[in-house]
């Protein structure tokens, strides 16, 4: 079992915890307390950012304790059964279709699924439903990723979701060069698949994050991780449980295309981002094209087509007369042909420049 509840909010004296009522603006808070620069001496393991107000499902201390006690007993029983399976010679290593015998692996997985179902029932009975999306970031990228996540939660696409809080691990004193920082984005009910999926799409499409699944706070409190002897999966939702690989790749690719084109979508709501995807490129491209159009004489919108033809003929006649006055008689014919060709080419060039 975990020694302490890592998901418990810090008290008001913890300076690495930001809410909308904090004295410092969020941008300044993120610049001042960067996870790559804050060293964990045992007293500051996390940097937190919260929407404020509702912080989690309304679980009471009594319900939390009861849920923990019930789940702990189940976990203990399952862990013992899993261990016994290893030493049970009556359970074959491979399944047998003829006899219907299940393999050790199949028996273990059946027990693990049964335990997961029981944990869910306990969580729902005691309203202990809170949990988080898990992400990891290297020391080189963690500041940027954390800032993007926190800003999105407060004033960006994530602000319109059920997500209410985020945290990032600070840097251990003796961190190795390949140290990974864990980031958590909290939801009040991780068994609400639609709410979880909505957040997932934003994390992929609007942030391009790499996700590691959704973990229940109850699992954290029980100490269930990837190395737990029970073998129970540490997350209640794996990425593939919510979305296929093709859709995930499509969403992330779209984010990086926007990033390459210089679009800034993180501070907008999901609907605004969809609109920007449709409208922004046209706005950006129209401006320089209009500026590059060659200037031309303003047309009189009330002039007739005949009047415009007369003006054009007069202009050409004056131009031809000037050239005839300066050209020799032997070049008049050639000059006239060249002028005619020149006049025919001009509109084409203008049309080309306007395209």
TrEMBL record:
Biased composition (Acidic residues): 303-312
Gene3D superfamilies per UniProt: RNA Cap, Translation Initiation Factor Eif4e (3.30.760.10)
Molecular function via GO: translation initiation factor activity
Residue numbers spanned by region Disordered: 89-108, 266-355
Top-level taxonomic group: Eukaryota
Keywords on record: Initiation factor, Protein biosynthesis
Segments crossing the lipid bilayer: none
Pfam family, any one: Bles03
Family annotation (InterPro entries): Bles03 (IPR015034), TIF_eIF4e-like (IPR023398)
Similarity annotation: Belongs to the UPF0696 family.
Protein name: Translation initiation factor eIF 4e-like domain-containing protein
